[in-house]
Amino acid sequence: MYVQTTFALALAALQAVSTAAVHQRDVLEDIQKQAIAALNKAAGSENAPSTCNIFNAHVRKDWSVYPITIHRVFDTCALTFTTRATMAAAERKSYTKAVNCLMSKPSMLDPAMVPGAKTRYDDFVAQHINQTLSIHGTGNFLSWHRYFVWSYETALREECHYQGYQPYWNWFSYQSNPTISPVFDGSDTSMSGDGAFVAHNGSVGGAGAIFLPSGNGGGCIISGPFRNMTVNLGPISPTMAGETKVADKFAWNPRCLKRDLSAYTAEKWLVPNNLLNLTTGPAARNIETFQNELQGRFPQGFLGLHAAGHFMIGGDAGDLFSSPSDPIFFASRLPRPRLVDMAGLASIPGLYRGWNHYAFQQPA
Ligand SMILES: [Cu+2]
């Protein structure tokens, strides 16, 4: 098939590039160029979807650099992509303003059932908490989170007049120092910075199997748009040393948002070799190996890209249940569908059945 042949050639070329060379840019860019070409080709075919295609798909932009992003949303318009679309400062501010707006609106949940949900933002945290045990380590892990992000994006747009789409945080940038990333530099155009320094003995990830040393934070966020944010739910499964579990999973536990940004986690697991393994290497052989590699092999000390994304942020983001308490959660979900889409195009037979007929739709 044309697409597979094209990808085979592109991937062979990509794998021949040294890690050091690809590290300087978006490591999926070469694969993605092929994907966009294939999408254009599909869009011109008689089987192209008429209601959602490369011409009318929503654009989700990268917060900072490495601007090419391609992924899709699960619901109405099935394809979402960006092409050299980096968020301008004003766009970043309008996004964080909308998130703060969601945090200022009252919860729509029944307070008798979820007493800790005080705001509309909390409703999303509560939803994740409620379903945690059936949406992680399971076959619906990726599709559920895709839908979750779409729901949140829709709430920002419809309830808080946000004009844009959910921004994307590229895991594979600023690994050696996330605090200087435009995402985390603490400026007014960031997603807020690190937590204040609080001496503590690291965190434990990988279902308690993997020790992660402390970064330079650990305390409350003190800069950027979310510096005054109140977290109402959790922690339910705290991972940072010194944190105490809340009595009930829906209890009200108002406190500041904490982070402990970690270069250790990013440099160890969010690296090109792991990414290539998932998209073109042995892990892309089938959906089972893909999911296992993405979600980690904890007994072997391999945190995996998903958990590494959580622990690059640390603090509240390390909690399996209440991690959406940190607003970066939603931007942090987007590298995964992007990886799935690339792997689906490149390596995993049947992940997207019948390319010409379904063009990026998931298998039933
Ligand atoms: Cu989750």
From TrEMBL:
One of its GO terms (molecular function) is metal ion binding. Residues 1-20 form the signal peptide. It comes from the Eukaryota. The keyword GTP-binding does not apply. SUPFAM superfamilies: Di-copper centre-containing domain (SSF48056). Residues 136-153 form the Tyrosinase copper-binding domain. It holds the Pfam family Tyrosinase. PANTHER family: N-ACETYL-6-HYDROXYTRYPTOPHAN OXIDASE IVOB-RELATED, TYROSINASE FAMILY MEMBER. This is Tyrosinase copper-binding domain-containing protein. It comes from Apiospora kogelbergensis.
